[in-house]
Predict the structure.
Amino acid sequence: MREVPGFPELGELLDATLPLPQPASIVPSVDELTRLLVAARDGDRDAFGAAIRRGQPDVWRLAVHLVGPGEADDVTQDVFLRAHRSLPSFRAESSGRTWLLAITRNTCADVVRGARRRRRLQDRLFSSHGTEVAPSAEGTFGLDQLMSGLDEDRRSAFVLTQVLGCSYAEAADICDTAVGTIRSRVARARMDLLEQMRAADTA
């Protein structure tokens, strides 16, 4: 037995076979927006107001690129109304940002579907021809104009990853699909945009 002067009991402890320490359970850090949404879900009204202020910029930016600046304000308001109604089901399994952007995408999809229905009705009433991407006042084709011609799923994936800076995994959660599908949609969106730009240059 090892001897520790003045502390005989300590020598016994040092010689004893002790169980290996078990790793502490890892508690994931919670970002501020997620924390606020959890607090709001649990009844803190002030927390939801703070969550709106923190989440609004990303919600609005995504809405601008999916439905245009003319609809973005209304969509942003609708997103937070939907988020408030859905708070009881928020389990924080993904981040608050991911949750809000998923609601934003779904809200924008509803707006786009409504616009398509109105456009089809207008086409029937006035015998309109199909619309094309139009040049801006300066004669150039802006990115927003070009993106408006993308397939809805490709546009969502492109905006989330290339404009808002979401990871492919976050975008997959928001769009409720696989990471590989997001990568494919982004790649195809880039190809579509390049084709539109080449067509605009030769027009």
